[in-house]
C-alpha cells in the first residue's frame, strides 16, 4: 500500500476548483448550477465526465421542478432506494430533506431507510411507498398494486416512481464508488 491518501475533497474524489476547471468541465459546472442552483453531492463527481453530466443533470432537475410526484412522494421513494443501497451520504442528506422539505414524520423516514414497515394516511403516498418497496426489493408489482397506482398516480406517476428509483440508484452507485461519507462537504464552490 502507498503512503498517499486515497481520500480527496469529497470522499475519494478530488474536486477541481472552479478556477482550475478545463472549459468542458466548467461548462458542465455552469450548466448544473443553472438547472439546480448549486452543484450538490454526486453532481460534484459527475463533473469528471462533462458530457455525461450535461446529459443526466436535467433528469434530477426534472424531479425538482416538473415531476408529477409531490416532494413528500419523491422523498418516500428516495429514502427507500437510498436505504436499499446503503449510501451513507444519500441517506444522511435525504433523511433531513424528507423531514424538512417533504414534511414526513421522522419515524416514517427512519423506517423507509431501514426497510421497516410503515404506512401513510395519504393514499398517493401509500401507493408510492408500496410501489417503490416492491420495485426495490426486488419483487413483482402485483396487478392490484398496479391498478391502485394507476388510479392514484396515472401512467406518468408510475413512470416517475420507476425513473426516480433508477436515478437514485445511479446516485448511490456514484457515491459508493467514491466512498463518500455521510458528513462530506466537498469544496465550497
Structure in words:
- This protein has 189 residues and is mainly α.
- It has eight helices and no strands.
- It is globular and about 55 Å long.
Whole-number radius of gyration?
18 Å
What characteristic shape results from the CA principal axes? globular
Query: Helix fraction?
Result: 55-70%
Strand content: under 5%
Number of H- or I-type helical stretches = 8
Distance between the termini: 32 Å
SSE order, one letter for each helix or strand? HHHHHHHH
From the structure provided, what is the oligomeric state, counting identical versus distinct chains? single chain
Low-pLDDT windows of residues: none
Name the average pLDDT.
Answer: 95
Largest sheet: none
Q: What is the total tally of β strands?
A: 0
Assign the structural class, choosing from mainly alpha, mainly beta, alpha/beta, alpha+beta, or little secondary structure.
mainly alpha
Would you spell out the secondary-structure blueprint of this structure?
Blueprint: H1 23-36, H2 41-46, H3 50-65, H4 71-84, H5 88-100, H6 106-114, H7 123-136, H8 143-177
Helix pairs in contact: 1-3, 4-5, 4-6, 4-7, 4-8, 5-6, 7-8
Amino acid at each position: 500500500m502507498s503512503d498517499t491518501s486515497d481520500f480527496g475533497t469529497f470522499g475519494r474524489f478530488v474536486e477541481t476548483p472552479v478556477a482550475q476547471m478545463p472549459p468542458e468541465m466548467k461548462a458542465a459546472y455552469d450548466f448544473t448550477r443553472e438547472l439546480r442552483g448549486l452543484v450538490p453531492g454526486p453532481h460534484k463527481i459527475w463533473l469528471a465526465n462533462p458530457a455525461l453530466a450535461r446529459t443526466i443533470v436535467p433528469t434530477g432537475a426534472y424531479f425538482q421542478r416538473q415531476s408529477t410526484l409531490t416532494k413528500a412522494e419523491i422523498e418516500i421513494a428516495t429514502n427507500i432506494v437510498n436505504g436499499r443501497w446503503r449510501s451513507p451520504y444519500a441517506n444522511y442528506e435525504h433523511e433531513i430533506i424528507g423531514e424538512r422539505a417533504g414534511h414526513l414524520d421522522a419515524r416514517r423516514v427512519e423506517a423507509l431507510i431501514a426497510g421497516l414497515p410503515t404506512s401513510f394516511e395519504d393514499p398517493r403516498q401509500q401507493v408510492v411507498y408500496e410501489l417503490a418497496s416492491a420495485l426495490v426489493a426486488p419483487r413483482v408489482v402485483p396487478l392490484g398494486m398496479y391498478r391502485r397506482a394507476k388510479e392514484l398516480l396515472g401512467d406518468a406517476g408510475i413512470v416517475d416512481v420507476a425513473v426516480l428509483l433508477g436515478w437514485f440508484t445511479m446516485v448511490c452507485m456514484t457515491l459508493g464508488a467514491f466512498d463518500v461519507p455521510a458528513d462530506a462537504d466537498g469544496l465550497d464552490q
